[in-house]
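User: quick one, sequence for these tokens?
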């Protein structure tokens, strides 16, 4: 983990994002978690997830799964079974200890044991129930059901049992209520599914039985979402990473803006094409700052 200098922290706290009347999220320190080299290159992180013990699960664009401890040290790493066709994007550690990966370009979900051995796989290319075209997000609810978002032909979310048995599907391609253009981030909370609708630049809310509930948009007096790519829920707060705007946005379920942090760039307090985020139990926020090939740790 690389820690930013005091001058950078002060710059973040007192200046924050680009000049704006919007509230900002302030952090006492901004640190960088190192992505280990893969041969001669430093890969970029794409997917993040953290469990109740603050172990952090990372996907990078070298086709690897990496597990970090809560202090930013790599504990384990392994490659996907195949990755020449493309790298995966979504990861979650399941309640039974397995690790599920949305293996995007192989149109399946791969489940590993805690040591990186393939436990099982489900799904194949196709648009029927139980098939996938570019799955990009995966989440679990407390009953062990899995939710997989895909952005290919169907633009939908499918629900499965832990063994990969298909339960139901909701969503389709489009711009209307309950429709998607790249559901690239999913979070379950209190019986509801919060789904990023990236290219429609909004968050949609469903019951975990697939019933559309509402669109979550920001108020008209603040800048709208710009390619939201991932979402996490903490109590009554939503944390969203915006890929195009290169910022972290916190809001209430009714759309009330809590604050924002970040802008496009390479320096402290800036992101470049971020793809994912996760929340640790002590309040820290981790951002997959993909274009900058780093994981950024924000400490409140």
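Assistant:
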């Amino acid at each position: 983990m690389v820690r930013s200098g005091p001058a950078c922290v002060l710059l973040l706290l007192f200046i924050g994002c680009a000049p704006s009347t919007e509230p900002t999220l302030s952090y006492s320190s901004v640190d960088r978690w190192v992505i280990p080299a893969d041969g001669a290159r430093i890969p970029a992180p794409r997917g993040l997830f953290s469990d109740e013990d603050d172990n952090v699960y990372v996907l990078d664009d070298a086709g690897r799964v990496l597990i970090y401890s809560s202090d930013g040290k790599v504990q384990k790493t392994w490659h996907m079974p195949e990755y020449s066709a493309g790298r995966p994007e979504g990861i979650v550690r399941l309640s039974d200890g397995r690790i599920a990966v949305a293996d995007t370009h192989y149109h399946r979900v791969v489940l590993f044991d805690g040591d990186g051995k393939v436990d099982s796989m489900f799904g194949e290319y196709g648009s029927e129930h139980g098939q996938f075209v570019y799955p990009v997000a995966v989440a679990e609810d407390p009953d062990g059901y899995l939710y997989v978002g895909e952005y290919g032909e169907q633009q939908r979310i499918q629900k499965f049992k832990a063994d990969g048995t298909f339960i139901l599907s909701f969503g389709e391609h489009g711009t209307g209520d309950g429709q998607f253009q790249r559901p690239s981030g999913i979070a379950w909370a209190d019986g509801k599914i919060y789904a990023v609708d990236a290219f429609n630049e909004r968050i949609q809310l469903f019951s975990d039985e697939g019933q559309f509930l509402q669109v979550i948009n920001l108020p008209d007096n603040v800048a709208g979402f710009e390619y939201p790519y991932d979402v996490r829920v903490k109590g009554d707060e939503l944390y969203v990473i915006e890929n195009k705007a290169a910022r972290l946005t916190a809001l209430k379920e009714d759309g009330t803006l809590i604050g924002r942090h970040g802008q496009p760039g390479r320096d402290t307090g800036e992101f470049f094409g971020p793809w994912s985020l996760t929340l640790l139990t002590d309040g820290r926020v981790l951002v997959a700052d993909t274009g900058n090939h780093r994981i950024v740790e924000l400490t409140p």
